[in-house]
Structures are given as structure tokens and as C-alpha cells.
Amino acid sequence: ARLVVLVSGSGTNLQALLDASADEAYGARVVAVGADRDGIEGLARAERAGAPSFVERLPDHESRDAWDRALAARIAEHRPDLVVCAGFMKILGAPTLTAFTVVNTHPALLPSFPGAHGVRDALAYGVRVTGCTVMLADAGVDTGPIVAQEAVPVLDGDDEETLHERIKTVERNLLVETVGRMAREGWTVTGRTVRLGRSGG
Ligand code: GRF
């Protein structure tokens, strides 16, 4: 399966997908990396892996819809079977969501703590268990159908950074495993239920 991965930051989730796709048996490979900003480590990781990359910055476009359409067109150039948001900090609009299946990952157990500060919000709430979620992207903020989740404990003395690092260790593996299964087994979506399996795709 052909993956286009969208990033906005350090790209450690992207790196995990790049590393996994080095193995033919994984069943998927990163054919391009897209970003909404320049100068991020995620783009350097794409460069080092020899993966084509592109950047579509919102301020370069006369409207949000123009940016959405430009992004969808750049993604389409690479003919993806699956688009993966891996720390992509923009909400995708209809041009992308209607053209591709988009998988996203979030460092909390949705529906708890959606949005850009899920780790900070969980810590502030005082939960003892948080985790990460792999879901399909829809027009909302982290509201799409859930594909996989894994719990991560909050330890005494955790701050946002230590907790996010512990979550990301689990999240990278969950994302790689889930995307690999979707690529190899296919998937179907019925309402809010995502089933992996041959009849999918
Ligand atoms: C990940 O935890 C992702 O879920 C969240 O931001 C982090 C991105 O990390 N949205 P990286 O850029 O993949 O290292």
C-alpha cells in the first residue's frame, strides 16, 4: 500500500513508519511526506529516507479552502492508498477527507482530551491512566471512528514532557501496527465502527 504521511513537527511517528516500511513484509511504504510548514525535523527525516516531500503553508494561500484544495492536489500526485497524519497540526477539510482515507493518531484515550493539548489536559485533570488512539480523521477535531487504542500509565512526578514521551513510545508502535494491518488486510467503516479485514478498502 502507498502511504502519504503528513507532519508538522519532529516526525518520530513518521520515522517509525519509514523504518517499518523498509521491510517488504510490512505491506506498506511511505511514498511521500507532506507538511504545513518548513524547517521541521519531519522533513529532514523524509530527506534522509529519500522520500519525496512537499510543503503547503496556509499563509501562502488566499483562503483556507484554497489551502485545502492545494494540499489535496499535492497528496493526490502520489496516489496514496492511505494518508496518515502523524503529528499534523491542521484540521483537514473536505477536499482531502472526501478524496482519501485518512488515519490520525492522538496522544490520549479519545473521546477524552481531544485537541492540540491532550497530554497537558490529561495531566491537569489528574487521570491515572491515559494512552493513545489511532482513528480515522473526519471533519471534527479528533472525533473520527476509533481503530485502535492503548493505555499508558501516568507516573508520580510526570510532567507534560515525560508523559508525552512515554505515550509516544507506545503510540509509534500502535500506529505502525494499525497502519500495517489496514494495508495488508483492508478495512471497512460502518458508522463509527472500523473493521479490519479483506472486504475492506
Ligand atoms: C504525537 O504524539 C501526535 O499524536 C501528536 O503530536 C505528536 C507528534 O509527534 N499530535 P511526532 O511529530 O510524530 O514526533
Automatic annotation (TrEMBL):
<keyword id="KW-0658">Purine biosynthesis</keyword>
<dbReference type="InterPro" id="IPR004607">
    <property type="entry name" value="GART"/>
</dbReference>
<comment type="pathway">
    <text>Purine metabolism; IMP biosynthesis via de novo pathway; N(2)-formyl-N(1)-(5-phospho-D-ribosyl)glycinamide from N(1)-(5-phospho-D-ribosyl)glycinamide (10-formyl THF route): step 1/1.</text>
</comment>
<dbReference type="GO" id="GO:0005829">
    <property type="term" value="C:cytosol"/>
</dbReference>
<comment type="similarity">
    <text>Belongs to the GART family.</text>
</comment>
<dbReference type="Pfam" id="PF00551">
    <property type="entry name" value="Formyl_trans_N"/>
</dbReference>
<feature type="binding site">
    <location>
        <begin position="11"/>
        <end position="13"/>
    </location>
    <ligand>
        <name>N(1)-(5-phospho-beta-D-ribosyl)glycinamide</name>
    </ligand>
</feature>
<dbReference type="GO" id="GO:0004644">
    <property type="term" value="F:phosphoribosylglycinamide formyltransferase activity"/>
</dbReference>
<protein>
    <recommendedName>
        <fullName>Phosphoribosylglycinamide formyltransferase</fullName>
        <ecNumber>2.1.2.2</ecNumber>
    </recommendedName>
</protein>
<comment type="function">
    <text>Catalyzes the transfer of a formyl group from 10-formyltetrahydrofolate to 5-phospho-ribosyl-glycinamide (GAR), producing 5-phospho-ribosyl-N-formylglycinamide (FGAR) and tetrahydrofolate.</text>
</comment>
<feature type="binding site">
    <location>
        <position position="104"/>
    </location>
    <ligand>
        <name>(6R)-10-formyltetrahydrofolate</name>
    </ligand>
</feature>
<dbReference type="InterPro" id="IPR036477">
    <property type="entry name" value="Formyl_transf_N_sf"/>
</dbReference>
<keyword id="KW-0808">Transferase</keyword>
<dbReference type="InterPro" id="IPR001555">
    <property type="entry name" value="GART_AS"/>
</dbReference>
<feature type="binding site">
    <location>
        <position position="64"/>
    </location>
    <ligand>
        <name>(6R)-10-formyltetrahydrofolate</name>
    </ligand>
</feature>
<dbReference type="InterPro" id="IPR002376">
    <property type="entry name" value="Formyl_transf_N"/>
</dbReference>
<feature type="active site" description="Proton donor">
    <location>
        <position position="106"/>
    </location>
</feature>
<feature type="domain" description="Formyl transferase N-terminal">
    <location>
        <begin position="2"/>
        <end position="179"/>
    </location>
</feature>
<dbReference type="GO" id="GO:0006189">
    <property type="term" value="P:'de novo' IMP biosynthetic process"/>
</dbReference>
<feature type="site" description="Raises pKa of active site His">
    <location>
        <position position="142"/>
    </location>
</feature>
<feature type="binding site">
    <location>
        <begin position="89"/>
        <end position="92"/>
    </location>
    <ligand>
        <name>(6R)-10-formyltetrahydrofolate</name>
    </ligand>
</feature>
